Amino acid sequence: MAQSEGTLRDAAGLEALISRAAAQGKGLPPVEKWNPDFCGDLDMEIKADGTWFYMGTPIGRAPLVRLFSTVLRRDADGKTYLVTPVEKVGIRVEDAPFLGVELNVSGEGGDQVMTFRTNVGDIVEANAGNPLRFVIDPANGGLKPYVLVRGRLEALLARPVMYELVSHGEDIVVGGKSMFAVRSGGTVFPIMPSGELEEQSL
Fold first, then answer.
1. What angle do CA 175, 167, 131 make, to 5 degrees?
2. DSSP state, 2?
3. Nearest to residue 15, comparing CAs of 53, 56, 69, 57?
4. What phi-psi label fits residue 175: left (phi over 0), alpha (psi between -120 and 50 degrees) or beta?
5. Residue 168 domain-assigned?
6. What is the CATH number of the domain that holds 86?
7. Which parts of the chain span the membrane according to its record (predicted)?
8. Higher pLDDT, residue 197 or 84
9. Which residues of 66-93 are buried (b: 16+ CB within 10 A; e: fewer)?
10. Which residues pair with 41 in a beta bridge?
11. Which residue has the higher pLDDT, 181 or 8?
12. Do 102 and 186 sit in the same domain of this protein?
């Protein structure tokens, strides 16, 4: 893929930049506040299963993947970037940038809370600010649940997590219509009309 002159030449250089950005403070870097120049695309891709590739090769170092994940940003143009105070490079994302790999459910009824862990260590409580959304995969008719992690970045829930989530579903009247839905953080998240559940390929 063609890259501009200013594009970082290798992942090691990018890692160094990110390390300096992350070292400025504790917690996640404030990527939403940064507005650096776009420097081209990097030959990096996040596959649907959460595996990161650089120049066609899987990135096997989990700490490096976690580091990269802290400076991900999805902009209003629908594209995903790695962003530092001085560099903004585009990467490819096959589905969602994160994968939800674990679910913890606490409380019951209106007090129920669903908390997810992603493949890169994010902990996310599903609520009005971090909603769940559900789509039907046009390829196979299967259910694909997502949870908003931060900004515009979502995690696709792994199939075992999806099955566990669905096991907590119940029929709830939403807008005068009976929906199969789940509750979390004081919010009801409709999955599908109750009558369609038996027809659905999970």
1. 50
2. -
3. 69
4. left
5. yes
6. 3.10.540.10
7. none
8. 84
9. ebbbbbbbbeeeeebbbbbbebbbbbeb
10. 90
11. 181
12. yes
Structural domain range at position 47: 11-93
Element (H, E) at 88: strand 88-93
Q: Is pLDDT above 90 for 167?
A: yes
CA distance linking residue 116 with residue 125, whole number of Å = 6
2, part of any domain: no
pLDDT computed for residue 164 by the predictor: 96
Q: How many CB atoms lie within 10 A of CB 187?
A: 16
Domain shared by 28 and 87, yes or no = yes
Locus of tokens 């579903």: 169
* H or E element in which residue 162 lies: helix 159-166
Helices of type H across 58-138:
62-69
Q: What is the pTM of this model?
A: 0.86
CB of 101 within 8 A of CB of 117?
Answer: yes
- Total number of domains in the chain: 2
How does pLDDT run across 113-151, given as a tens digit for each residue? 999 999 999 999 999 999 999 998 888 888 999 999 999
Q: Which of 34, 66, 93 is the last residue of a domain?
A: 93
Residue 46, in any domain of the structure: yes
Residue 178 belongs to a domain: yes
